[in-house]
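Our preliminary data section would be incomplete without showing what the modeling component actually yields. Below, a chain of 180 amino acids is followed by its predicted structure, encoded as tokens that our downstream tools consume directly.
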Amino acid sequence: LMSFFFNDTATTEIYTLSLHDALPISPLTTKEAAQYCDIDLPVNIFTIGLDQTATNIQILHPELKKVIIKRRLPDTLLVEIKRRKPVVEIEIDNKYYRIDKNGFVLPGFLKTSNPELPDITGIRSSLILKSLSRVCESGRLRDALEILKILKQTGIFEKYRITRIDVSNYRNPAFTINGK
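Predicted structure:
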């Protein structure tokens, strides 16, 4: 969860109040936060539509799971965002695409693998690429995420790390584990 404060004056700083996120984020100026949120300054905090603005921010940044905007009197908007958390990744042409627990394919890619995330194999790359910034409807991906969910419930992650889930053969999915 990350929070921004910004006022309708161009000199007020935005501070990151709380951040439970793997990405390091520096404090933003009012102007930078307004650009990130696509809000034109100056803004009257009493006339801005909070729900519609939150929806617009989520459309602009699909990697965000939740956006809440609150008014803080006398002149502050508080924008709270929660990022989607990747739980697996899929390699396509030496690019790593991250996917959350609901099958949402996060926008963009990384050039290196995250060793903390299991790699999924056996899913057509075209399904992943056409699902960027939305939920992938692959049954094999759903199976892999279900396997991961069941394995987490067993407590296996306390001693082992799941490195790969192979759903090439949907009747016989396999997974690879390594000790921590």
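Residues 7-24 have pLDDT under 50 and may be disordered. The radius of gyration is 20 Å. Preliminary results of this kind motivate Aim 1 of the renewal.
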